[in-house]
User: What shape does this take?
Amino acid sequence: MTLTRDDFLALDEQDILAPFADEFRIPEGLIYLDGNSLGAMPKAAMERAKHVIEQEWGTDLIKSWNKAGWFDLVERLGDKTATLIGADKGEVIYADATGLNVYKLVAAALEMRPDRKVIVMEGSNFPTDNYMVQGLIKQLDRGHEIRFAEDGEILDAIRDDVACVCITHVHYKTGHLHDMAAITKKAHDVGALAVWDLCHSAGALAVDLNGCNVDFALGCTYKYLNGGPGSQSFMFVAKRHHGKAMQPLTGWWGHDAPFGFERDYRPRKDIRQFSTGTEPIVSLAMSEVGLDIFMRADMGEIRKKSLKLCDLFIQLLDERLGGYGFSLATPKEHDRRGSQVSIYSDKGFAIMQALIAADVVGDFRAPDIMRFGFTPLYVSYVNVWDAVERLKNIMETNAWDKPEFKKVGAVT
Amino acid sequence: MTLTRDDFLALDEQDILAPFADEFRIPEGLIYLDGNSLGAMPKAAMERAKHVIEQEWGTDLIKSWNKAGWFDLVERLGDKTATLIGADKGEVIYADATGLNVYKLVAAALEMRPDRKVIVMEGSNFPTDNYMVQGLIKQLDRGHEIRFAEDGEILDAIRDDVACVCITHVHYKTGHLHDMAAITKKAHDVGALAVWDLCHSAGALAVDLNGCNVDFALGCTYKYLNGGPGSQSFMFVAKRHHGKAMQPLTGWWGHDAPFGFERDYRPRKDIRQFSTGTEPIVSLAMSEVGLDIFMRADMGEIRKKSLKLCDLFIQLLDERLGGYGFSLATPKEHDRRGSQVSIYSDKGFAIMQALIAADVVGDFRAPDIMRFGFTPLYVSYVNVWDAVERLKNIMETNAWDKPEFKKVGAVT
Assistant: This one.
């Protein structure tokens, strides 16, 4: 039976997550399928920012380090995030940016495996992870090398010369979901450590770090967690490594007595050692608003809706857009994908520009991938239908074939 | 002739910087002498934050990376900051936090002097600089060492085994101003490089990096530059080192083609190589508001008023608070101090708490220093008189000698 728009409206009627959409600001008429790049703004974020700026900074000034708990914010947000990624209290901290945290965690892992020189990474990963590790091993100059492996090759690449694997859980381009349990187990079997990048999985699906016995992880908060543009990254360090794993960017926030102003560094023996120094507080505090919405939502329901949204999008592409040379980059199997659908098309750049002009925002990744992210807290079922309809209209009328849609600009 | 409150009111009448005070939010009745720790809030910061949050994030969403110039913000703010520190366009960039930038710049300097193993630092400096360099040399494990030297010993410590000096221009505790020209010259004379930390001088006095032939510098924006709590740090790299000096925290924002998503790192050949990755945009954007105020103020006038405020504070302490065991930690000579006055007192902690309770906010640094920062854009002459009067009252009535003023809490 062919699907109709009414079927999607009916699904929205029954959707127990539907009320969450009201908590986000989405411009009238816009279908926003780019929450995997920059999550939408929780309406309460403005109120929180106003309080932090006018009351905590403007009025309470320096007292806010204690009174407003600025110094402890990195741990409080960490504890909340822990509940979304299968970690325990005290295992997660907010600090700096994802690239820096990749550096810290891989550096800590390498120091724990001094006799091994290989890091297994996915060459097609979002490149900053690779760049940071390339910078690290060049700097160390002790003969380390990255063994690049793609999806099917990763398990084989993990051999007994490997110090650590550093893999992004969900691939930024294809939406492919890696098997965290199997890769981590293989790493441990050969005596290596596992570092997971959760940029495209935290908030998109239930991650089970401790269930998979993961050693280290990090992730970003401005995608599925709706923390605001460039909001800080989080890190996970398994409790068994606390006081043993040490990161080298040793700032005063990671000191055992940060307010003792001692001359020499003495590391904290817990997750706080992984922080460095003073964080941009307004951005950090605002990211708690996005997180607090997740504290009230059920991650199982989020995943269920995410899979359904993606399934339906794939089905409609099949049914309604058969003749336009699109092919799926994202696996169809549920246990093999995150919360996005990526499509190959050699005209992808122009088509995406035309879609954006038609108020359907996804994004494009060179050379030929159109990405559509599905964020169940504020994307509805009827959004899926309407997005495909607008895409169909663009293809039928060749609306993408205009010079203004072919001008290349920076995208992220 | 003894000074009276009327003398201070008269000075305020004549003060050409006085109108700037209206641009900052200072709670009614509060005398805020802690702008050297956390600068006051420019009133326009809220409006700017609201625009970034509601319009750029909430409405324009992902488009803002181009439309609102988020990606270029780090350079635009850098160019503005350059005018305050004697740097040229293209030599300054915003990125990350001060500690991380110390790490990057010292790492770059060490790589340029591979045969030298000594870094000269001030042991009594704000410790995060020392901690970061300790972390770096431990990680490099190539026999580097820090040669700690205090004020009078620094020039002698710079010998031909030195790779770089890394000194904070104005000392965080004492307010002592180091001779940037002489120390940089001595470094160059022995073949070393000079890294300057401007945390307590940028925005406090006219810094002349290129006039002093400085190699690298960094500074913070949440003190004298009023960027907001924890707002990002800036870095200076002299143009002659661009493309040669390379920092090791190599993220995608420092890549030659950040949106090419290449697998391997290829460094930019300019200041941008010193950035790493996505910055917390709300905090970053807000810090432009503080900077824009400086674009309209004359740094010569700021310095003149700063010295006068400090001179008067010192004079009043002398005249009116002679019998209470206070002694000056800050040099009296103008060319030897920044924009703060620090006082030794073994009862300093409790006295500062009592002062704060009396709405005069300075801060305390263990074991025995009370700090008073003078920020000419929003501190008036009469604030100086009133602060000393309240301190006098506290001393005369022993108001500091209460249990609630002796409880130690975290301060920053």
Observations:
- Chain A has a mean pLDDT of 96.
- The first strand of chain A starts at residue 24 and ends at 25.
- Chain A touches chain B through 91 residues (CB under 8 Å).
- The radius of gyration of chain A is 22 Å.
